[in-house]
Design a protein that fits this description.
- By secondary structure, the chain is an alpha/beta fold.
- The protein has helices at about 25-30, 50-60, 70-80, 100-105, 125-130, 145-200, 205-220, 225-235, 250, 260-265, 270-275, 280-295, 315-330, 340-350, 355-365, 365-375, and strands spanning about 40-45, 65-70, 85-90, 115-120, 135-140.
- Strands 2-1-3-4-5 form a five-stranded parallel beta sheet, sandwiched between helices.
Length: about 400
């Protein structure tokens, strides 16, 4: 066995497929693992040369590749330089004991397994070694067959643990990939839902995407768990979906609106909630809440229900703040982008009136994060041309 190789590279293990992970049993995996002595390396650790010679004779005769060390420090030196599949170690040795070696190797288990050699008086210590991660122990005086049974069993168990660990890693990777796929699909659904209203309004596609990114960043700053962060990232872009029900003459009017026209325009909040209501999908349900509440104001002067303070859902308070930030910071066919200091001044002025004061403090304290999102997701040139 060459230096740097290990038993994992040579044992015959049935290939693992993500499609069969849920049907694979421990028994089937155990049957698929065959320990071949000539492919395994064993380190014998004992302070007595005669014992090392005896154990090495037993193991090499059975086909194992053996190395020796007379104490714990020597064993660690070998392990630092070579790939060892199993350590066969005496418990009682001058200086550091076999138990000390087991503790030192805990971070390597199961990549390196350990079997203890113990006298009857050391049985309690041997059990402690098992609790610390050793795979088994042999009592002195031992028979060659006992040594081989313990070594083979420990190596087989080692491979089982490595196989299960690898299977769990593959499962975790598969879950991560599926999570990303679901998140991307969810974002695409949200953006497609609003695409119809987007083409009729003066908003841009990147505006609604930025709203989701801003809202997610605010949620992270508030300490939300990742599922909640991902939900608001998909839900916030749908805040103005109700504008699909507003007549073009009002929605695209270049000048100011009359009082009657404002009454109609404000109905987009209820329209949006109606479009999204009744869903069992979390981000669509949150989208409905945001749609009807994102024009409410902290002081109760907003619409459509005149909610005040914490009666306004948090997701709507977040969206209201980041929507104003983005709208002011970007060019539209009817306006140029505001300088950042003017945007900040308006947001600060709206603290406690339009916006939740705690959200304003959090937003302004982390303004650089939102500036990065703004700069990294600019409007496309055709998005801001007049008449588009």
């Amino acid at each position: 066995m060459t230096r740097g190789s290990c038993l994992c590279d040579h044992l015959k293990v049935t290939p693992f497929s993500g499609d069969t992970v849920e049907t694979a049993s421990g028994e089937a995996m155990a049957e698929s693992i065959q320990v071949l002595p000539e492919q395994a390396s064993v380190l014998v650790v004992d302070d007595l040369a005669i014992i090392r010679l005896s154990l090495r004779h037993i193991l090499t005769k059975a086909g194992y590749c053996c190395r020796e060390a007379e104490d714990v420090s020597g064993a660690l030196a070998v392990l630092d330089k070579e790939s060892i599949d199993l350590v066969l170690c005496d418990i009682q040795m001058p200086g550091a004991s076999g138990l000390d070696l087991v503790k030192a190797l805990r971070h390597r288990i199961p990549d390196t397994s350990v079997v203890m050699v113990s006298s009857l008086e050391d049985a309690e210590t041997a059990i402690t070694c098992l609790q610390q991660g050793a795979f088994g122990y042999v009592l002195k005086p031992y028979q060659p067959r006992e040594i081989l049974i313990q070594v083979n069993g420990a190596l087989r168990r080692r491979m089982l643990e490595i196989a299960f660990r690898d299977r769990e890693a593959q499962l975790a990777q598969k879950v991560r990939e599926q999570t990303v796929e679901i998140r991307n699909s969810r974002e695409e659904i949200a953006l497609r839902l609003i695409s119809a209203s987007e083409h009729r309004d003066n908003e841009t596609g990147m505006h609604v995407r930025r709203i989701g990114l801003y809202a997610a960043e605010m949620a992270r700053l508030l300490g939300w768990e990742q599922p909640g962060v991902e939900t608001i990232q998909s839900a916030a872009p749908m805040h103005d979906i109700g504008k699909i029900g507003v007549p073009d003459a009002i929605l695209q009017k270049p000048g100011g609106l009359t009082e009657h026209e404002w009454v109609i325009m404000r109905q987009h909040t209820a329209m949006g909630a109606t479009i999204l209501k009744g869903s069992t999908v979390p981000f669509i349900r949150m989208g409905a809440t945001i749609a009807i509440s994102h024009h409410e104001k902290w002081d109760g002067t907003g619409y459509p229900r005149g909610l005040q303070g914490e009666a306004i859902p948090m997701e709507a308070r977040i969206t209201a703040l980041v929507d104003v930030y983005d709208a002011l910071s970007n060019r539209r066919h009817y306006k140029e982008p505001w300088p950042e200091e003017q945007v900040v001044a308006l947001i600060h002025k709206g603290r406690g009136a339009h916006f939740d004061p705690l959200l304003v403090e959090l937003f302004l304290a982390n303004l650089e994060r939102f500036r990065i999102i703004l700069m990294a997701n600019p409007d496309e040139a055709h998005d801001v041309e007049p008449g588009i």
